[in-house]
Amino acid sequence: MRFKIFFTIIFLNLTLAQALLNRAIGEELTYGSVRSFAMGSTHATSGNNSSLLRFNPSLLGTTLINNPSFIDIQINLNSISERRSILVKDYFGDFLTYADYLNNVNMYNFFQGGFLSKVGNFTLGAAYLPIASFNYDYSEEVRGSADIEDGEVGLKDPLEGFHQFNSSGTLNSISFGLSYTKIKKSSEFHFGLSFNQTLDTEIKDVFRVDTLRSEFENLALINNYSSNNTYGTKDVFLNFGISFLKDDYLLTCSTEQDLLIQTANFNSFNFIDSLGIISYLDETNTNFILDGINFYKPARYNLGLSYNPIDNSSLTISSEIEYNQFNETTFFKDSKTFKFGFEYILPSNVPIRTGIIYKESFMETLPDQSIISAGSGGSYGQLHYDYAISYTFFDYFYPDLFLLDSDSYTNFDQITDSKFNFTLGLKYLLK
Question: What mean pLDDT is predicted for residues 35-48?
Fold first, then answer.
C-alpha cells in the first residue's frame, strides 16, 4: 500500500466541482448573464445580455426596452478545490476515518461578450460564449520511508517525487440570432432563433511521474505523456425560444440542440463497467490513453415562469425546469435541473438577488448537487455593472489516479469537490 503523508487542512475550501472528469467529458459552462446567474441560473427567464442567444433568444428584445442597442462583456472566475482522503482502519480492520492526503486548489477564467441592437420589432445579436472546459490540475507530493539509526539526523519520510496530471483547454463558440416581438393589447409574444458555431480548441495534456531519486518505492510506474494540439471543431447547433408575457407573468419555453464533437484522432478513455468509472489509463495502469476530443452536450429543454407584479415592479420571482437529454452516449443518463431565483430592487435602486439550484446527476456514481447563488449590481450613467457568486460541493469515490502494482480498485479515495464562482459583467448602453 502506498505510503501517504496525512495533513490537516487549515483553511476553508471555497470551491467545489467535479473537475477530475473535465478532460474526459468536458465541463459545460453555463454562466448566462450575471443577473440570471445570481438568480439561480434562471437564464431563460431572467437573462439580460447577449448570452440569451444560447439560453432563450426569444427574450433578446426585452433587454432593449429603453435603448436601441448595447455592448456587454463578462469575466467568469472559477475556483476549484479537490480534497482527497484515504481510508484508515483500526487494528481490527474496521472503518476508523478518512484522512486527507491531498488538496489541490486551482483558478480558471472564462471570457464572454456580445452586442444587441433593435430594429423595429426585431432584435439582432452576436456573442462570443464559452461552452465547455477541459481544465484539470493535479499535483501530488509523494514521500518514501527510511530507517534512521539512533543518533543520526535525517528524514524518515524523504521526498521521492511528484505525480502530475494537467490538462487545459476551453471550447468556445460564436453565436448569431434574432428575435421578433408582437405586442397585442396587454400581451406580448416573443419568438427567437440563434445559430451557434464552435471554434478551434487548443488542448494541452501532461501525465507524468517526476522522480527526484534514482531509487524509489512509492511512485507509480507509468510512461510519461505530454501533448499540445489544436483541434478544428467547426460544429453547429441551434437554439429556439418562445415567450408569452401577460400582465404579471412571463411564460417561456426554449430548446437547444445536442452537440457531439469527436475529433478524428480521438482515442477513448477506459470506462470500467463493473465500477461505473472513467479511467485515463489502459488496463495495465501504465499508459495514458486519452487523445483528442470527445465532448457531448445534451439536448436541452427548458420551461420557465417569472412573476413581476405590475403594482410592485421591484420584485421578480423566477423558476425553471430544465431537462437534459443524452441521445448519443450510453455513459450518461437523462437528468433534470430545478432552478429558483429572486430579485428585489431597493429604494436606492440597488438590486438584491439570490437563488438556488437542484441538479440531478448525469452519472450513476455521482451524487446530485445543490447550488446557491447571490449577487447585485448598479450603474453609472450608460454603464451598468452586475456581479454574482455561487457555491457548491459534494463527495464521491474514485480510485487513486496513480496506482502502484500492489494497488487495486478495492479501496477508493474519498474526494470532496468544491466550486466557488465569481462573475462580473459590464453593459454599455448605446444611444
Answer: 96
Chain centre to alpha carbon of residue 228:
23
Residue bearing the bigger pLDDT, 220 or 51:
51
pTM higher than 0.90 for the full model?
A: no
pLDDT tens digits along 369-388: 899 999 999 999 999 999 99
Q: What SS3 class is residue 313?
A: coil
In the block, residue with C-alpha cell 408582437:
182
CA atoms within 13 A on the CB side of 39: 30
Nearest to 93 by CA among 400, 415, 414, 410: 410
Which sign, positive or negative, has the C-alpha torsion 351, 66, 384, 115?
Answer: positive
Cβ neighbour number for residue 431 with a 10 Å cutoff: 6
Helix (H, G, I), strand (E, B), or coil: what is residue 386?
A: strand
Domains and CATH numbers, the chain: 22-430 (2.40.160.60)
CB 53 within 8 A of CB 127: yes
Please give the C-alpha separations between residue 23 and each of 27, 136, 230, 294, 427, in angstroms, as whole numbers. 8, 7, 15, 9, 33
Gyration radius of the chain's alpha carbons: 25
User: How far apart are the C-alpha atoms of 27 and 24, rounded to whole Å?
Assistant: 9
Rounded CA separation 55/57 (Å): 7
pLDDT tens, residue by residue, 144-165:
766 655 554 555 677 788 899 9
**Which of these, 105, 77, 170, 110, lies nearest to 388 by C-alpha position?**
77
Reference 189, options 201, 175, 179; nearest CA is 179
Any residues with CB less than 8 A from the CB of 187 and at least 6 apart, and which? 244, 245, 246
- Can you tell me the mean pLDDT for 346-355? 95
Residue pair 77/107 in contact (Cβ under 8 Å)? The answer is yes
